[in-house]
Amino acid sequence: MPEITEAELKKQIEKADFSNLYLLHGEEKYLVGFYAKKLIAKAAGTAFSDFNFQRFDDTASIDAIASAVEALPFMAERKCVVVSDLDVESLRAQEASKLDELLKSVPDTTVLVFYLPSIEIDYKADKKWKKFIDTVSRTGATVHLKRRSGPDLEKALCSAASKRGCELSRQNAGRIIGYCGNDLQTLFNELEKLCAYQKEGAISAQTIDALVVKNLETRVYDLSKAIIAGQYDKAYGILDLLFYQNEEPVSVLAVLSSAYIDMYRVRVSIQSGFSAMEPAKHFDYARKEFRLTNAERDAKKLTTPVLRQSLQVLLGADTALKSARGDRRIIMEKLIAQLLLIAEKEKTA
């Protein structure tokens, strides 16, 4: 059976029309856990669950899993065996061979579910995972749960707010996503907080601004905007907040450098006669194209030489941070001062 869609999985769960073998994986861990829970609840049923439902984690042996899979259900149509976060990459050759045989011979009386609520797969480089996914696809069903796009996330947030007795416009849903990123678990946690505060009625932009916690990328993006605009107090205020929240200076610098690299790539692309989206063809901007749109807007305020000078200063700060033994805050404060001065020279030139 080839890979099935999220909609097809939902239909199978609703109709209790199961494959004997499933693998739920993907970048959106909230959905992996959500659908695993629904699938397991329906497949396991309630009859004699002590006998007909068995769960294993990443420490289980293939022999133990195989024994559970091959055992007959007790006074029920089927039994359900669940394995979470099995690390296929770390299996020795003998264990891998046993797993391969198991995947090809799951009995009709068992629904075997593998799901990955924590493990991240490099789909291009991890050959063992690719083989595992291919094997499951030939005998069972695989579901790749990817990150949702902006419009889908907005729709999901609006629907979730409505179920909690609140109203959320698509524009304000987009505002939450802009602050938190596209991780569903984080988004729903923030929405839960907003609905608990609002209780009922429309959730305003002001409420979102006051309550939603911005992720690191968003806060550092605000820092880059303040630097480009020459807003000294705001830039150092954001930096102070980042240190107060115990963000690692190396992580802050990495995100800040990415913002400047995005601007430089967009600037060079446009100067070469291409569109601002050209870098997406050559670098990893999958589901992050909005960064290029933001960079196009911000890059208009700085010349190419200024961007190059800024990148040189960022590189120097990176070297200093990684070899620093003392207070790394001084290095970051010096960096912000240098970037502000470079941006200010652009205005006075």
From TrEMBL:
Pfam families: DNA_pol3_delta (PF06144), DNA_pol3_delta_C (PF21694). Residues 22-133 form the DNA polymerase III delta N-terminal domain. The keyword Transferase applies. Keywords: DNA replication, DNA-directed DNA polymerase, Nucleotidyltransferase, Transferase. It is an enzyme of class 2 (transferase). The keyword 4Fe-4S does not apply. Its EC number is 2.7.7.7. One of its GO terms (molecular function) is DNA-directed DNA polymerase activity. It catalyses: DNA(n) + a 2'-deoxyribonucleoside 5'-triphosphate = DNA(n+1) + diphosphate. Residues 217-338 form the DNA polymerase III delta subunit-like C-terminal domain. InterPro entries: DNA_pol3_clamp-load_cplx_C, DNA_pol3_delta-like_C, DNA_pol3_delta_N, DNA_polIII_delta, P-loop_NTPase. SUPFAM superfamilies: P-loop containing nucleoside triphosphate hydrolases, post-AAA+ oligomerization domain-like. Belongs to the DNA polymerase HolA subunit family. This is DNA polymerase III subunit delta. It comes from Caproiciproducens faecalis.
